[in-house]
Amino acid sequence: MNPLELVGAEPGPAFTVTLDGREITALPGQTVAAALWAAGVTSWRATRGAGRPRGVFCGIGVCFDCLVTVNDRPNQRACLVPVRAGDTIRTQEGTGHGD
Amino acid sequence: MATERPHLAVIGAGPAGLAASLAAAAHGVRVTLIDSAAGAGGQFYRRPPAGLGARRPEALHHRWRTWRRLGDALAARVEAGTIRHLADHHVWCVEPVERAELVVHALLGPLQEEPVTVRADAVLLATGGYEKVLPFPGWTLPGVVTAGGAQAMLKGGLVVPGQRAVVAGTGPLLLPVATGLAAAGVEVAALVESADPKAFLRRPVALAAHPAKVAEGVRYGARLLRHHVKVLPRHTVVAAHGEQRLDAVTVAALDTHGRVGPGTERRIACDTLAVGHGMLAHIDLAESLGCRIDGLNVAVDEEQRTDVPGVWAAGETTGIGGAALSLAEGHIAGRSAAARLTGTRPDPHTWARAARSRRRAREFFAALDTVYAPPAHWTDQVTDETVVCRCEEVTAGAVRKAVDELGAGDVRTVKLLTRAGMGWCQGRMCEPAVAGLAGCEQTPARRLLARPVPLGVLARAGDPEDD
Ligand SMILES: Cc1cc2nc3c(=O)[nH]c(=O)nc-3n(C[C@H](O)[C@H](O)[C@H](O)COP(=O)(O)OP(=O)(O)OC[C@H]3O[C@@H](n4cnc5c(N)ncnc54)[C@H](O)[C@@H]3O)c2cc1C
Ligand code: FES
């Protein structure tokens, strides 16, 4: 059983967004992080120092590990930001400001 | 007329803030309930958003009936205009102004750029807490998440991070997390608990006094059995392995002193590690208001008042104790605030039931606290290369150097010397680890702002024209 089946979910129509140009299907109401997890992706940031991959850690907006660039805005917390049809999501390198 | 009623701002719409808002609104006070989340419920009653169309959200919850009662009552009060619910509002500061008024400063929406202010006659802090995780090699790998985070993503987003999980750390939260993941189709390879929950059996008085809690424990035990989850008490995760993401963990047995027993290590393949070592309270707003802090929690009296006039606090911000305690404290705080704001004498007899639940829940949590604890010698496992401050990528080696060679004796000095705790999360994630490595007690951090605030908003907040 998957989580959607467990709660008898009947989600609204799915839509697509892109992660680094690759198409991903998302469901209405999900956060960016939830949509990426559902697509099997667990990291979308490279740290500023060592360039190590990061994704969700606290899941509730406290740790800032899940920072991501959405529609050219860097430093969005993927665990808080709702995903919207057509979003362009990019792996965030360092500060996300190209330095 | 509704607008002439005294006005209480409640910050946090979890069990504590909900109970407080409902109690206050029922006793003559106009309430503005402010929360950063999109829906009410807090951590315990986190629910999937409407777009996901969950027909049986209760499958991921227990005590759902209580939520139905709270949620329905809130909807009725919002409809009647006695409670205003501001969702998606991140409060970054509460400021006392003249004439016994307080101003709540918030940022709107997930982008947190647009400022909003709310003026009130009194403020009730019900901001709950967040999870504490102590570091170990590999804990920054994708696939390693906090236990509560796994639960939040599951309850709120109906997603899981992988197919095979280990749930580890210490504390009662690990039980719903392990059973929740298992019910959602994740193979839970092990529940690794550093304490020995059987130690509870040596506290027969605590057990006999709380039959409902014992029954809850038994139910979790049965669910773990049904999902074939192997429970490893007195064990700990010593390392997480993987290159770009987690592919295994090493667990080991602990001896009676809390040290890893040599030769007891074994590797468990998994793509998910949900780990937590207890909870910490969100106290930033209370600290900046100058409220007295007791240890790492907001200090309150019998009526849940802080020592700052017009400021109440309830729920996990005043001490970690679970949803039932938060409900009881919230109710008492709401009643007390309503009485004092409407100029009536608070009569504790009228909330005796809530006071009794509060006393019992605190007793039970005090007993739990004597049982659940991270391994006494957890720092032994933290190699010098282990990143301790996840934001600034400060290693344990750098922290040790600051302590051993540069003479840092507290978290603040380590921070100045190493930048540990200076990143985005403002030290919330690494403070317990830095304190442990420095060999000192964790003390309140005195963060000035509860959220990062855009400079333009800060500049304008000082401008009287703005509010
Ligand atoms: C991630 C996580 C998951 C958990 N899952 C479970 C579980 O499944 N089962 C269980 O028994 N216990 C769980 N807990 C424990 C939980 O804390 C308690 O059960 C209970 O929810 C505490 O109630 P509360 O009202 O005191 O605080 P909370 O429920 O934490 O509510 C506090 C509310 O305040 C809001 N808030 C905080 N700061 C601000 C701010 N500055 N501005 C605006 N709003 C703010 C938060 O968004 C939150 O909604 C979890 C804890 C965490 C951290
Ligand atoms: S996962 Fe911690 S802020 Fe998003």
Automatic annotation (TrEMBL), chain A:
GO molecular function annotation: iron-sulfur cluster binding; oxidoreductase activity
Protein name: Proline dehydrogenase
InterPro entries: 2Fe-2S-bd_N (IPR042204), 2Fe-2S_ferredoxin-like_sf (IPR036010)
Source species of the chain: Streptomyces olivochromogenes
Domain of life of the native organism: Bacteria
Keywords of this entry: Oxidoreductase
Pfam family, one: Fer2_4
Signal peptide: none
Automatic annotation (TrEMBL), chain B:
Keywords: Oxidoreductase
Single annotated GO MF: oxidoreductase activity
Keyword Zinc-finger among UniProt keywords: no
Record-linked SUPFAM superfamilies: FAD/NAD(P)-binding domain (SSF51905)
FAD/NAD(P)-binding domain residues: 7-318
BFD-like [2Fe-2S]-binding domain boundaries: 387-436
Coiled coil: none
InterPro entries the UniProt entry points to: BFD-like_2Fe2S-bd_dom, BFD-like_2Fe2S-bd_dom_sf, FAD/NAD-bd_sf, FAD/NAD-binding_dom, Metab_Enz_Cyan_OpOx_G3PDH, Opine_Oxase_asu/HCN_bsu
Protein name: Oxidase
